[in-house]
Each structure stands twice: as C-alpha cells, then as structure tokens.
Amino acid sequence: MAESFLPRVNGVTNSVCRILDHLAARGHEALVVAPAPGPDSYAGFPVKLVPGVALPVYKSFVVGVPGRQVENALRAFRPDVVHLASPVVLGAAGATAARRLGIPSVAVFQTDLAGFFRRYGFRGTDAMLWSWLRRVHARADRTLVPSSPTFRELEEQGFPRLELWGRGVDQTAFHPRHRSAELRARLAPAGEKLIGYVGRIAPEKQVELLTRLVGVPGSRLVVVGDGPAERRLRGLLPEAVFLGFRTGGELSEIVASLDVFVHTGANETFCQAVQEALASGVPVVAPAAGGPLDLVRPGVNGLLFPPSDGTSLRAAVTTLVTDDAMRARLAAGALPSVRPRTWEAVCDQLLAHYSEVIYGSAARHRAA
C-alpha cells in the first residue's frame, strides 16, 4: 500500500520504487495499491489504482480514497506480508484489511504530518493527527522508522513495536564523478561558489530561509524543484538560478556540481536529498533536527544550525563558502559517510523485517 506513487515524485515514491526494483531482482512477487492517476505496472508488478483526491492546500499531494477494492485486492493476491508505505488514509485501510485477513503487515513511518499541516497554518491539529497515526500504526505488526530522532519522537507518542530502518542512496547516480565544469561555468560565469537547494519549494520545507543567503560573498544560489511556494520565492530571490524540477542524469550532474548543499526544513523524518548530496561529495548545511541529525556530522561532512535560525544558517554557509580548506575537508568526508547506505543493503534489511513478522505471525497462530 503506497500512500504516494508515480507519477508523483517524493521520498515515499522513491523508496517504494527502490523496494520494488529490489523485489523484482530477487524474484519475489508484488502488487502495488496506490492512488490514481498512475501507471498500471512498475518493475513488472501490477499496480491497482484507487480513486485519488488532491489536498486543497497542496494540489500535487493526492490522497487515495479506499473502498472495498483494497480488501478485495489483498484477498485475490494473497500476499505473505503487506507493506504500508507512510500509511495515512489508504494505508489505514490496508492495515485494517490485512488484520481482518490475518496477513502480517509492516508499516513505514515517513511523513511528519503534524509538522506538515502546522506549516500550512493548521493550528491545534497535532494531538488529533498523532492520535490517528498512532491508531493506524498500532494495527501493523511492526513500524519501521527512518532516523533515531524520529524513533524517539514516536516512542514518546506511544507508537508500539518500533524498529529503526533507514534509506539507501544510489551511489551510481549520485557520485562526485558527475561534477561538471561546463555546468559550473554556465551557472557561475564569474567563478562563484554554488550554494544549492534541492527539494519541494513549499512552506513545510521552510524555503523562506533561503532568502538569508542573499549576498553571501562570492556565491550564487541554485534552487532545484517546484512547488506551491515557487512563484513567491522567485520574487524574493531574483538573483538566484531556478532550474525547476529535474531528475535522472541532469539532477546527478547538478548536485555533484554544487560547492555547498543547503537544506532548510526542520520536519524531516529522514531527508533523502541530504544523503544524495553527501554521496555526490558535497558538504551539507542542515537544521539540527530530525533525519539530518543521523546524516550530517559537524566538522566531518557538513555543519548543523539551530532549526529555523536564519542567522545561523547564513553564518554556516558563509563559513563554508569562504573557507576553501574547510570546504574541501568536509567534501572529502561526504561520500565515505554514506558509503555503507546502499539500497541493496537497506532492502535486504527490509526483507529480514518481512521474514520476522511473517514467521512471528505464524508462531502466534500455532500457539493459539
């Protein structure tokens, strides 16, 4: 059950696709249930689409509207385990159906919904959202959590049966060898250092903090992505280079060609963009909150700043832009810091979690 899937590209979709690629390579069978619109297959696996409705506050975020087709799909496919990718609405229906059919399930916590809605002006919703998510995840046999700060938060919120499970990074697509002198010459014709942001241009990413980087000596800001706050941010940053949404080889080349990678949002449960920058050999400046705390090691591969503190963000970026020796040292430490985090290793860990809930469920049934 994927709360988000192609053609929408985000952290949930990316991880689901990598998992499906791994399952296909290992000879497993899978069925994807996801919101429409979308493809009818992926990696040779069928995709069952359910009606989807866009959120009023974020048109590109589509919520699946489940019905009987969820349970019918599971009944027909008869899986050994149900994978619930960032379950909220469709995933909640999947968790309920799996329990009714006696199928073990693994839920993956990926989205800080409380933080997301807070950034869109919905105040006083935290307790309600946490209560709902806690009930959804309580129906699963195991919840996998992407970072240690998020793990601690879910423990405090009373989520049961938690295990830590991170994300992999494609170290072929993201690697220092993709650094392009030609691209750098186009983006920084006067030899400026390139400061880059890659991600959704949206309130929950706190992209307004990028305005604090205007005028950092000897630098140029590059923004990659799209989203509801793009028009406003373009107006606030007339000197920045906006490259729009990029994927594939173009994105690999852009990220590797940066001198400093900046992430602004303080509500990340993991932050794949930070990991991709590190794999590309680029030092990272990120908030000292959530997922980046597991990825950025100050003085080794980047710097951290207090969440939402634009002054500290500017100071950290200025330090890296102006101190060539420090920037080179942190760049050298970037790729080694994520080298063990391959998708193959991470997906093998996931298969082990599947096996444990499958055989644990079988043992419970035998005992009963």
TrEMBL record:
The keyword Glycosyltransferase applies. The keyword Transferase applies. Signal peptide: none annotated. Residues 9-170 form the Glycosyltransferase subfamily 4-like N-terminal domain. Gene3D superfamilies: Glycogen Phosphorylase B. SUPFAM superfamilies: UDP-Glycosyltransferase/glycogen phosphorylase. Keywords: Glycosyltransferase, Transferase. InterPro entries: Glyco_trans_1, Glyco_trans_4-like_N, Glycosyltransferase_grp1. Residues 186-332 form the Glycosyl transferase family domain. This is Glycosyltransferase family 1 protein.
